[in-house]
Amino acid sequence: MDQAHLGLGYNVTREPQVRVEIASVWPLVALMKRGGAFDSRASLDLAALDRLPGAIAPKSFGIGAMIAAVEAKQGLRFRAIVETGLIAALKAFVQTDMGCTILPRFVVESEVLAGTMVAHPMSKAVFDGGVAYLPRREGRKLPQAAQLLVKHLKTLLVFAKA
Questions:
Q1: CB atoms within 10 A of CB 121
Q2: Is 144's pLDDT higher than 70?
């Protein structure tokens, strides 16, 4: 955050030197390849997700921290065969039908709309508390282009619910 004017975070720890420009609640969803071996038409519960091979973000990421908290609270461990901070790798894991992943829906909205992935909300509201943030360093004046970008982002789906 020291060199960039703006960032995008999910379920991040708030810091006093970081100002949140926009925030919006986005629950995590289970993602599978549409029509693939792991695609389930029913709502998934944690026990069902626990039995599927998965790819997840590490605990050092907001998404991974939220998954780890749910694992601890529910007394289970997801069958993660891949752990990576690369969103593209998590998406590729699903697109090649190797299993499922857990991400905020806005990350894969284009794939869901294109019909290549299906997003399953969880039957329990355990992943409902995640928040997408657009942060910037406190006290830093944004250049005009960044100000216009923030104004535009406020109209997009990701932050329109804020």
A1: 15
A2: yes
